[in-house]
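1st attempt posting a full record on here, be nice pls
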Amino acid sequence: MRHKKTGRRLGRTSSHREAMVRNMVTSLFEHERIVTTTPKAKEVRKVADKMITLAKRGDLHAKRQALSFIRSRDVVAKLFGEIQEQFIDRNGGYTRIIQTGNRRGDCAAMAILELVSYSEAAIEESDS
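the predicted structure (as tokens):
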């Protein structure tokens, strides 16, 4: 029995799971939207919300804590710049999970994990 054990194991070793979550959080902040399985999205959401809370704090120690997890200076700069400004007045609930049905190959439940402020028009304007 897994009493008092938090988090999903996702069928991976702890080092593989930690690396996967780091990569997914980095991708989420870089692209503001990722498509993944529902259990992975629920795990990544926890960490992503904590990273945005660090960004809202905005001091040097918070930036160093974010860098120790994300490890991409460009993504951390984006997190402490434009993403921080989007959520400065919001008290939580920074991400949204949208169920999209099952994957064709193995029938795994799929979901879209995106930032609440995500919009297609804003992404297209920033790319131009």
